C-alpha cells in the first residue's frame, strides 16, 4: 500500500469529522496491539488554546536534554506526517505505511461490528502509540485532540497532566458554559498525578480544583505556584524570566506573542512537576528551538510579509489581536479570513474590528465550510468594504501589504503550504 492510499483510507473510510466519544474502542484496539502506550512515560497536555505550543516546548526541551521523545499533535496543517514525530522529526511516509499495515488486520476485525469500529482519530492515536513503542522512545508528549475526558489520548497514566487554558470552543460536544468545558477537560486528571494550568478564570479553576482534590492530585496554578515576567517582545526574540521551583532569567523564546510566554511558563512548570532531571542549558536551547506552525507564524514571500494564525475561536482571536498590536502597532495590515460553519463566527469577527485596512473573506478548503454567504454577511456587520475572493491563493496574492491569514487551521495550512513550497501537495486532493 502506498502512503497516499493509506491517507485516502483514513480520510474516507474513517472520516475526520466522525467523532465517536468514549474510550472503549481505543482501549480495545490498543489491547489487540499489545498496549504499546504502556511501554514509555508520557506527559498529557490539554486545553482550549495553547496546548500544541506547550507540547512543542516540552518536547523540544526534552530532546535538548538527550531524551528520545515521541510527540503527538492534532490537527496537522500541511501534511499528515506533522501529527506523529520522533525527536520533533516528522514520521516518514514509509513508516506511516508500515504502521498502518501492522494494524490493518486488527482494524478489519474490529470493523465487522460498527460498535467496535474505531474512528479516524482513534486509529491515528493508536498509530502514534505503536510508532513510539517501535522507536523505543523514553517519553511521549501527547496533545489532547478534543476535550479530554473522552479523548482517545486519555488512556495513559502520565507523569503530569496539563490544562493550558479553558475557553468556549466545540460547545456542542463539550458544553456551553466554562464550568462544563472545564469539567470535560479535567477528565485527563489522574489519581495522584500532578496538574498544571495556565488558566485564571475563577469558574474554571474551581472545577479543576474540585476534580484534583478528589483525585489527590497536586495542582499548580499560574501566578500562584509559578509565574513569568516579560522582559522584551521582539519578533522571534522574546525575553522573559521564569519563577517556579527553579528560577531562570532572560530566557529567549522564538515563538511570538505574550501568550506564548505564558505558555512557556506552563511548559516549564509541567516539566518541573514531572521530576525529570533537566539542565538549564537544555531549557534554554529547547525554548529557542520550539515552534508551533501556523500560530502567529511570520513568513515572507516576494517581499511581502504574511502573519499566519490558526485562531478559530474568540479566545484565540483575542490573543492574535493583542500580538498584532504589540508587534505591528500602527502598521497597515490586510486580513484574509475564512471560518468553518461550526465555529463562533460572529464573536471571532467582532475581535478584529478597527485593526485592518482591507478585509477579504475567503473559502476554507474543507467540506466543513458550506455556508460562505452567511460569513460574508456577518463580516459586513463589522467591516466596511468587505471583499470576497473565494480562492485563498488569489486572496493572498491580491494584497499589497503585510497580510494576516486566520480563522481556520485548514485555511492557514493550505496557504502555508503554498508560501513554503510554491504548490499544494497531493494530500490536499484526497
From TrEMBL:
Obligatory cofactor(s): Mg(2+)
Pfam families with a match to the protein in the record: Mur_ligase_C (PF02875), Mur_ligase_M (PF08245)
Enzyme class (EC, first level): ligase
Pathway terms, separated by semicolons: Cofactor biosynthesis; tetrahydrofolate biosynthesis; 7,8-dihydrofolate from 2-amino-4-hydroxy-6-hydroxymethyl-7,8-dihydropteridine diphosphate and 4-aminobenzoate: step 2/2; Cofactor biosynthesis; tetrahydrofolylpolyglutamate biosynthesis
Classification via InterPro entries: Folylpolyglutamate_synth (IPR001645), Folylpolyglutamate_synth_CS (IPR018109), Mur-like_cat_sf (IPR036565), Mur_ligase_C (IPR004101), Mur_ligase_C_dom_sf (IPR036615), Mur_ligase_cen (IPR013221)
Enzyme Commission number(s) of this protein: 6.3.2.12, 6.3.2.17
Gene Ontology, cellular component aspect: cytoplasm
Annotated Mur ligase central domain residues: 45-268
Keywords: ATP-binding, Folate biosynthesis, Ligase, Magnesium, Metal-binding, Nucleotide-binding
Mur ligase C-terminal domain: residues covered: 294-401
Catalytic activity field: (6S)-5,6,7,8-tetrahydrofolyl-(gamma-L-Glu)(n) + L-glutamate + ATP = (6S)-5,6,7,8-tetrahydrofolyl-(gamma-L-Glu)(n+1) + ADP + phosphate + H(+); 7,8-dihydropteroate + L-glutamate + ATP = 7,8-dihydrofolate + ADP + phosphate + H(+)
GO terms assigned for molecular function: ATP binding; dihydrofolate synthase activity; metal ion binding; tetrahydrofolylpolyglutamate synthase activity
Family annotation (NCBIfam families): folC
Family (UniProt): Belongs to the folylpolyglutamate synthase family.
Assembly and oligomerization: Monomer.
Protein name: Dihydrofolate synthase/folylpolyglutamate synthase
Native organism taxonomy: Bacteria, Thermotogati, Thermotogota, Thermotogae, Thermotogales
